Recover the amino acids of this structure.
């Protein structure tokens, strides 16, 4: 079952084919599932933690050698839901194959409620230096509607505690929740800014298929904010965060100087990454793979000695280049044209085709030595990316 | 096979509403005459096409000869099956020409229905002797006495003459056989006269070519005869002839009054026209039998392959279908919006549905269908008469002297309490009331003249919902009459979308235009620019809606897993072949092309 890495011709000009220097580990445990969440999560079944750690040890153990990495991201679910002992065991499993480079970024997603003294010490002890807090809101009514189980006070305490050991603290926020007004969002955002974190991720609420919110939306028990409200809220967030020194660097990501999430930038820059755990997605040797979404199915396959893969795709060069370009345009800095062509074999102008000049003319896209979207372009990112990818889809 | 004397032949058909038990009764007759044994009985022998079974209707006529011995004499009963739907009115009339009598069958609970009345009248017009038959008398809730009075009231038959049977349980079938022999006159005809054989149906056999169904009116036809189809003018040799018993049973000759089939090595049904007259080349009849006309297609629609590459496949599939169904026609057409396809003509809506279903079942073609329309007539200022098969063919209003549409006489039968709702329905559709008649204390027949265009699309569904399913309807084409009609065009960002044009009454245009553009607004996705959807008559815009430009379209999250999920979705979509048609630079979903009709009609509520 060993995974070998000596059969690929490593080309320094093709970073996607380089050895990954990033790792994602999915910890599927949560106290309960929130109504908007469609992640791979097992809520209230902590007796599965041992089985999970066994599976992670097995899956990581299949790598046939040791790698050095720059970024590690513990996501979920809620990694902070694990006990200190289990956090140690998880990190030991990772360290069995991965060593952290100097200055490595180690992120853990945490629930504000979980961050007690003991958990904070454990996270610090295993080397976590970046904390991403699932705050979502500081407004009591909105928190209740999102089915979050923490309060604004919990958030303040959690941020303090995170700052005690992490060099970078981030909060996730949700806007356009059911019934939320523009004014309410402005108040909520200001409250979040008073936390003075280094990084903010501001997400418009997405109604995902299979969630309670989705069902309620279809049953017309809740209504989605209209397009104008969503756009106004988003625009306000960009302006307000920029004013507060948190510059937008990706569609939903804002950071103070030096606090961008390096791990996430790996995704947007088309670089390779390992991933382990249920639903975890990896991009290794130009191949995209995703593990089974179902935690139980993931367990069973790993326990049977099989790789728990649900989806696998290797794109031919042009679609791969188009996807790479489309994803890069989420980043405010876009991508450097020359290196893009060298890496993919396709020039940006060639891939944009007739859209290139017209988007530039319409003020949606800027192209000099780099190609990037304007704020107007990012506003309709889906449209632009689908046209870039549609040409071959 | 000894020849049955002409005076011992009885030719008849069964007229009945769907579900009233026509096929079951036919089966029982076959059994009681010993034509087929119970063991051989495949349920409902006469409806042998799978599609007919599925829909519980008889689409094509067939004929079966049943020898039977009664009081020591051998009779030959020929049951000619008639199609049970108005789309096939002409075929019905040809079948009736071949009979001397008809069994008018009504369900002992449901009573007389509109279809029975319409075909019943047609039978009376053809001077057939009518035997009223009430079926299902063993039903718990039968009301046979009332139904008998309804038959008397609606069709003028004598209630006392009703034969009461249960086809399912075989009650009184022998009594019915006696009635057929006693009350239906024998055919007449001179076997020495010049041959006149009426073609009333045909089907295509892959190995033997066209099988032509005939009733001998005058003269005799023998194996080896050189025969001529008088209307189509073609000459063939009879290589085989015989009768259906119910399997094809060859014989040496067919004599006056007999019903059977001819095999003449004909390679396509195109040459075998229902209603044609066959005579012999050596001693031709002086005149063909009366009443013939070419199949009249009343409904047209465009059929397009839903994937551009399937055009050839669609053509082959349509060609194959046309061999078996001469009343269906197709000619290539192209649409700016839909590309290359075919304009197809049908006898009516049912015929259209049947053809479409067969296409999808028998060949692997995915279809995009445009809204169906009836055939219109335009008299130009220069005095020409144009047949209009699609809205694009309507000339400029300046060139039109008169615009004509087909009008039908519709008979609607329903319980008294729904009369108000049905009258409202007919009035909304520009109907003109002709008659009201009480068939019994509780059932009323309304007659209306209505534009066919108002009837074909969904009148039947509406009637059913207005009457909780108790209403039935049927119609007869009266002919073409002038009307204030216009062509309404749909423009998307100023470009006319040809496949979306419709012909409608000027008085309805505003309302319909508004409904259509509103529906299209829902169907067309937001674009990066504003999309104007307009309805126009000539250059005058009568309705407008705007699809707003998209202000925001961005997914908040895109991390490792999201990228894979998106790819997975993309693969699924590719497999699902989602297609849009681009007009100018506006993408129009294919659904929109049919939505046109739904809206226009549903707003009439």
């Amino acid at each position: 079952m060993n995974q070998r890495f000596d059969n690929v011709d490593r080309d320094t000009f093709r970073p996607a084919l380089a050895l990954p220097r990033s790792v994602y580990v999915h910890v599927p445990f949560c106290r309960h599932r929130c109504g908007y969440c469609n992640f791979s999560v097992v809520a209230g079944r902590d007796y599965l933690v041992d089985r999970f750690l066994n599976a992670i040890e097995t899956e990581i153990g299949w790598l046939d050698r040791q790698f050095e990495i720059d970024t590690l991201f513990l996501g979920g679910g809620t990694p902070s839901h694990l006990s200190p002992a289990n956090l140690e065991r998880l990190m030991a499993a990772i360290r069995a194959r991965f060593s952290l480079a100097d200055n490595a970024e180690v992120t853990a997603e945490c629930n504000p409620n979980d961050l007690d003294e003991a958990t904070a010490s454990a996270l610090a002890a295993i080397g976590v230096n970046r904390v991403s807090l699932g705050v979502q809101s500081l407004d009591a009514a909105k928190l209740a509607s999102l089915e979050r189980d923490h309060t604004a006070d919990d958030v303040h305490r959690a941020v303090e505690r995170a700052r005690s050991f992490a060099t970078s603290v981030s909060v996730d926020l949700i806007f356009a929740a059911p019934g939320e007004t523009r004014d309410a969002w402005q108040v909520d955002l200001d409250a979040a800014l008073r936390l003075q974190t280094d990084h903010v991720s501001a997400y418009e609420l997405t109604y995902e298929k299979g969630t309670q919110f989705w069902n309620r939306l279809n049953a017309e028990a809740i209504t989605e904010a209209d397009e104008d409200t969503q756009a106004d809220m988003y625009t306000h967030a960009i302006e307000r965060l920029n004013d507060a020194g948190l510059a937008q660097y990706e569609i939903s990501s804002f950071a103070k100087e030096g606090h961008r999430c390096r791990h996430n930038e790996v995704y947007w820059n088309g670089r390779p990454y390992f991933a382990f755990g249920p639903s975890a997605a990896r991009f290794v040797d130009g191949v995209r793979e995703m593990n089974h979404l179902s935690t139980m199915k993931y367990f069973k396959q790993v326990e049977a000695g099989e790789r728990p893969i649900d989806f696998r795709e290797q794109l031919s060069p042009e679609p791969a280049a188009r996807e790479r370009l489309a994803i890069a345009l989420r980043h405010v800095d876009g991508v450097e044209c020359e290196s893009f062509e060298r890496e993919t074999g396709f020039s940006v102008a060639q891939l944009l085709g007739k859209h290139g000049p017209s988007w530039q003319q319409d003020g949606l896209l800027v192209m000099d030595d780099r190609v990037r979207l304007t704020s107007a372009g990012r506003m309709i990112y889906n449209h632009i990316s689908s046209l870039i990818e549609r040409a071959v889809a | 096979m000894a020849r049955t004397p002409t005076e011992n032949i009885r030719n008849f058909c069964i007229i009945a509403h769907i579900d009233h038990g026509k096929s079951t009764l036919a089966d029982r007759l076959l059994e009681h005459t010993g034509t087929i044994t119970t063991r051989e009985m495949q349920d409902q022998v006469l409806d042998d096409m799978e599609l007919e079974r599925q829909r519980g209707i008889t689409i094509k006529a067939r004929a079966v000869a049943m020898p039977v011995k009664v009081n020591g004499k051998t009779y030959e009963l020929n049951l000619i099956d008639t199609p049970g739907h108005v789309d096939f009115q002409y075929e019905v009339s040809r079948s009736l020409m071949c009979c001397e009598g008809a069994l008018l069958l009504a369900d002992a609970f449901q009573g007389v229905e509109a279809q029975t009345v319409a075909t019943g009248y047609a039978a009376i017009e053809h001077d057939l002797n009518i035997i009223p038959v009430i079926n299902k008398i063993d039903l718990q809730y039968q009301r046979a006495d009332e139904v008998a009075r309804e038959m008397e009231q609606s069709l003028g038959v004598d209630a006392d003459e009703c034969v009461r049977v249960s086809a399912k349980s075989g009650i009184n079938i022998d009594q019915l056989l006696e009635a057929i022999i006693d009350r239906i006159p024998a055919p007449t005809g001179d076997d020495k006269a010049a041959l006149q054989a009426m073609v009333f149906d045909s089907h295509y056999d892959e190995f033997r070519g066209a099988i032509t169904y005939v009733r001998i009116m005058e003269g005799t036809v023998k194996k080896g005869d050189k025969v001529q189809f008088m209307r189509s003018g073609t000459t063939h040799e009879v290589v085989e002839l015989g009768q259906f018993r119910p399997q094809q049973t060859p014989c040496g000759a067919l004599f006056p009054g007999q019903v059977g089939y001819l095999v003449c090595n004909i390679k396509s049904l195109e040459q075998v026209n229902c209603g044609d007259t066959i005579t012999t080349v050596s001693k031709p009849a002086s005149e063909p039998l009366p009443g013939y006309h070419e199949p009249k297609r009343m409904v047209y629609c465009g059929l397009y392959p839903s994937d551009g590459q399937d055009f050839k496949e669609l053509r082959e599939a349509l060609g194959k279908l046309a061999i078996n169904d001469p009343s269906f026609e197709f000619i290539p057409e192209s649409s700016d919006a839909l590309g290359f396809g075919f304009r197809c003509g049908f006898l009516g809506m049912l015929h259209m549905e049947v053809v479409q279903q067969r296409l999808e079942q028998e060949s692997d073609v995915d279809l995009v269908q445009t809204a169906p329309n009836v055939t219109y007539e335009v008299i130009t200022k220069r005095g020409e008469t144009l047949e209009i098969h699609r809205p694009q063919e309507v000339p400029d209003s300046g060139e039109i002297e008169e615009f004509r549409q087909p009008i039908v006489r519709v008979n609607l039968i329903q319980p008294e309490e729904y009369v108000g709702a049905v009258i409202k329905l007919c009035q909304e559709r520009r109907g003109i009331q002709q008659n009201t008649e009480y068939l019994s204390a509780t059932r009323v027949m309304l007659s209306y003249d209505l534009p066919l265009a108002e009837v074909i699309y969904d009148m039947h569904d509406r009637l059913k919902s207005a009457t909780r399913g108790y209403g039935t309807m049927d119609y007869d084409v009266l002919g073409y009459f002038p009307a204030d009609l216009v062509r309404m065009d749909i423009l998307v960002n100023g470009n006319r979308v040809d496949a979306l044009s419709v012909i409608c009454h000027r008085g309805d245009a505003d309302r319909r235009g508004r409904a259509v553009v509103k529906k299209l607004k829902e169907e067309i996705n937001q674009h990066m620019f504003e999309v104007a959807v307009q309805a126009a008559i000539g250059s005058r815009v009568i309705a407008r809606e705007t699809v707003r430009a998209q202000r925001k379209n961005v997914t908040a999250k895109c991390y490792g897993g999201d990228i894979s999920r998106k790819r997975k979705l993309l693969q699924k979509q590719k497999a699902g072949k989602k297609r849009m048609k681009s007009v100018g630079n506006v993408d129009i979903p294919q659904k929109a092309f049919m939505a046109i009709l739904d809206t226009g009609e549903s707003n009439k509520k």
